[in-house]
Amino acid sequence: MFSKSITKTDAFLDMPKTSQLLYFHLGMEADDDGFVGNVKSVSRNIGASDDDMKILVAKRFILIFESGIIVIKHWKIHNYIQKDRYKETKYLDEKNQIKVKENGSYTECTQNVSRMDTQTRLGKVRLGKSKIATKVADWSYKDQINKMATDTGDPRMWIIALYWVVKNYNLQNKEEYGSALRRELRPAKELQGYPRERIKEVVMWLKENADFKWTLETVNKYISEDLGKLSKKNKKIINIS
Question: Reduced to 3 states, what is the DSSP secondary structure of residue 117?
Answer without folding.
Answer: coil
